[in-house]
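Task 17 of the worksheet. Students: predict the tertiary structure of the chain below and write it out as structure tokens. Keep your answer in the requested format; marks are given for formatting as well as content.
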Amino acid sequence: MMDKPPYGMIAILFVGAFVSFLNETLLNVALPSIMKDFDVSASAVQWLSTGYMLVNGVLIPASAFFIQKFTNRKLFITAMVLFTAGSVLATLAPSFGVLLAARMIQASGSAIMMPLLMNVMLASFPIERRGAAMGIFGLVMITAPAIGPTLSGWLIEHYTWRTLFGVVIPIAVMTLLFAIFKLKNITPQRDITLDVFSLVLSSVGFGGILYGFSSAGEKGWDSVHVYGAIIIGVFGLVLFIYRQMRLDEPLLEFRIYKYPMFALSSAISVVLAMAMFSAMLLMPIYVQTIRGISPLHSGLLMLPGALAMGIMSPITGKLFDKFGARILAIIGLSIMIATTFMFSNLTMDTEYGYLMFVYTLRMFGMSMVMMPVMTNGLNQLPQSMNPHGTAMNNTLQQVSGAVGSALLVTLMQNRTESEAERLAEAAASVQNADPSAMAEVQAQIMNEAMLSGINFSFTVSVFIAFAALILSFFMKRVKPATEPIREQSAG
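Model answer:
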């Protein structure tokens, strides 16, 4: 631990992480425009998001190896070069294939950013000041993806989708130049070798699960692409875990789950990521498809929530240092449960101001949970295990986000179909000879059915968040373990 944290260096890492997070959500609003420009199907264009997530899912488990093997300076500069090169290629992409390749290059750079930044923070701050430091980190992690839809909605309305990549290039280049001249090495290195077979198993395991669940909403659970990928992924993951438990230098250290507070924080984070995605996914569908509100205004609806989360993140960090994670998690999750329940009762004419207020309150609640829970778990790990802890947290967040999204979208679709059938039968009993009136009734039936599906998914999210609340009662304040885990397990 150092006497004075390297604030200048952390600022450079923050900016790099911010642009990479921002880019993850910038593209969602632009997918229809890209479909039109390159004349590709919805399932093809979806790969711009799915592919990005898959590369993250494959590379993040390996981040523990990279962080221990290479200096933080080398890693960050390499990550920024890849991210910048991907952004430039995407801006100039002459075809959809080139754009997809550019996204993958971007993702390979951004995958290492978050674990690297978290490790630098853990190495720079003593445990009693980590909450405040991680609170500032939460500002980046939360605000960038939340601002994405609003910013991209505005840019798409005024410029082309290529601008979305163009705006991040100057920031990425400046960050890269600062890193080359100012970045120093502070994370400890070890001479370890990469177990290639573990990397292959990790890629098959996490990649298969992510692909399967993220394709379920579009292809359906009965598609061989979906259940086949999930079965292969689970099998790969079981083999991966078995191999890690037998290696002296595992790619990802699963023995960290012998630390009870880390295991508990992992479980809460997984449940939370699943609940969090409900509003991020379902609100745009409700606002744009059912209510017909423009992408820009649907982005603006979410902006106060993003700002509230951003403002609260450093404050929550300071409160965590003073009071610990349990009380913050209980209050935050209670707010999340209440607001998610309010979202499970949406109607065809719920006011825009009400939606904005409830969404903002929900994000306020979430800001009190995410970083304190994660930091409390990491605090129990000895310094040498930090790279494995951050890699595990980030991998689980990707996987649980994909699983949660697929689950909630499937529940929404199933409820929508059954409700549409019920409403169509009721409408058929009141026959109307006018064809134009019938078309209007059918459109109304579909909207009513989709609204029922969205409300049902939010109801399920209430129970998911409630499970996280029960788990949070078992949290305790911890001090880092001094012994490495292997010595403990041997003893």
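Marker's comment: The chain has three domains: 1-192, 195-250, 256-491. Residues 256-491 form a domain with the Growth Hormone; Chain: A; fold (CATH 1.20.1250.20).
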